[in-house]
Amino acid sequence: xxxxxxxxxxxxxxxxxxxxxxLAFAGSASAKLTGEFAKFAxxxxxxxxxxxxxxxxxTGGEVVLGSKKVPITNEAYxxxxxxxxxxxxxxxxxxxxxxxxxxxxxxxxxxxxxLGIVPPEKSPTLVKLLSxxxxxxxxxxxxxxxxxAKPASEIKVSENHLAEEEGVxxxxxxxxxxxxxxxxxxCYVGSSSSxxxxxxxxxxxxxxxxxxxxxxxxxxxxxxxxxLKNAVLVDNTWxxxxxxxxxxxxxxxxxxxxxxxxGLPATAGKNASTLKNTINIASRAAVKLNNEEHP
Length: 295
Hints:
295 residues, alpha+beta, 15-stranded antiparallel sheet, 15 strands, globular
């Protein structure tokens, strides 16, 4: 059964899932998930500390890193489970996806490529196509991939903040992998010791320059699966360190060039994340029950 509630406040989501979390089911786990539950296949729902399962694909938006604006054209997703909220902080602890892919790696093309040549926005379509052909090809193009910089347990989730469109809803440590034949395979902005900390909100950023959105609520599987469509998570408070490992043995020469072109290090206010998501959440108990009912 599918119930559709467009335009409702996302706070209904938290109320619904609180009720679901109170349910408890027992049985074996050697089965499979079906229907809308299938997307939670990598949730560690047999872990009793996990209370909710989450699968959230990012299908659009952009990341501004220093002077570079990278549109998100290839879908990425975050998946796993999270605990009940901490009584003091209000944040839930995140648990790694079963297959180890908590944050998927989806390469995004950097406009202008290695040379950073981007035609004016009002340029004719032909000019834009030629620019992409010459400056964003296999040799001069650059791919930017967002990766998790620390273990999944460092991720924090707040359902209340997500629903209320206020405060940090999702906090996670990331790094940016820059890929190009000239840059080598180890060119990164951010690391496990010096990550970029995204503190994403569905509300306004502190300076009111960006506004997120809690999404449009839909319920599936007789209300057991919650989906927030067209949700937008934003953050412009993060800082970005200098790039490192670019150019292999010539990194001492290449790193400064990359940092100069991107404008690194970049302080808060010069960077921004706008992630357009579809957020799917279900209680661990409901996912586990679906698994048991479909051998």
